[in-house]
Design brief:
about 300 residues, alpha+beta, 11 strands
Length: about 300
């Protein structure tokens, strides 16, 4: 039960990064969004949608996706603080056992040259990855501090992790998910930000939830098998976007799910809340000499 909770928490945390963009993928997504938008205009019988935006000042779901995607090419660095809370209940021989898991992450990211510094704190026992873990993820290597000691991940193990973390920084991977459910999503004006949200349940929600969790290409076979067994009961997603820059501000994802593991019923409520800040304020992230020296 704990292993499943930790896997899902890690997937949600990584997926949260995708709200903040990498240049190569956002450029292609912007072109695709523009092509899709043009096609819609050509086939429309009137320009009522455009007129509606002019009247209200609020973009449609597809228009906001396009603008956020285009703006992502200009976001060179950012910070993100996130919290993931999980309530896991397992029924064994008619008796319920409940565990609450919390994970907090403070992270800074620079795209060129790609580098991440993060601190992850959870309430799990130390032998299960609990406590606080500090980490540098850069092209010069991946260094982690666990239980007060720094260690360097072997280069052959670090390379695929570095690549998947780079691929995780693409805003359309999150925002483009709303394209398939545009009729169920909505954009509202919330003062200095636009709020994009969707509340989903019933048929189709499982595939969308899996897509959200597995958009990181590094997901392994074990993780996919776990997710395949899950019954996603509801998925609520909301994002706020700065009106001036079209950079993400807040990210919230709530899921309710259940599954059967070895004839035991497991239910889980998971909530992720992330806040993006320091847009283009971080110059570089370098691994301190005391870290590299301690890891040798």
């Amino acid at each position: 039960m704990k292993k499943l909770a930790v896997i899902l928490a890690g997937l949600m945390l990584t997926a949260g990064l995708t709200a903040c963009g990498s240049k190569e993928e956002t450029e292609s997504a912007a072109a695709a969004a523009e092509s899709s938008s043009n096609a819609a205009v050509e086939t429309a019988s009137t320009n009522s949608a455009a007129a509606a935006e002019t009247d209200t000042g609020v973009p449609t779901v597809k228009e906001l996706i396009q603008k956020v995607t285009e703006a992502g090419t200009g976001l060179k660095s950012f910070a993100m603080d996130s919290t993931i809370d999980e309530n896991v209940t397992m029924t064994i021989d008619g008796e319920q056992q409940t565990q609450n898991i919390s994970m907090k992450t403070k992270q800074e990211m620079v795209k060129e040259p790609f580098a991440i510094y993060q601190e992850v704190t959870s309430n799990l026992p130390d032998d299960q990855g609990g406590g606080t873990i500090k980490q540098y993820i850069t092209q010069d290597g991946i260094y982690s501090q666990v239980n007060g000691s720094w260690m360097k991940l072997p280069d052959e193990s670090a390379a695929p992790i570095l690549e998947q973390m780079k691929n995780a920084g693409s805003p359309e991977q999150q925002f483009k998910q709303f394209e398939s459910i545009a009729d169920k999503a909505e954009v509202t004006d919330q003062g200095d930000v636009y709020l994009l949200k969707a509340n989903l349940s019933g048929n189709g929600v499982k595939e969308l939830a899996k897509s959200f969790l597995l958009q990181n290409e590094g997901a392994n076979e074990q993780t996919e098998q776990l997710l395949e067994q899950m019954d996603i009961k509801s998925l609520d997603m909301s994002y706020t976007v700065d009106k001036k820059t079209y950079y993400p501000v807040d990210i919230n994802v709530n899921m309710e799910m259940g599954m059967t593991v070895e004839e035991q019923e497991v239910s889980m409520i998971m909530k992720m809340a992330g806040k993006v800040s320091k847009a283009n304020e971080i110059g570089s992230i370098e691994i301190p000499a005391e870290v590299t020296g301690a890891a040798e």
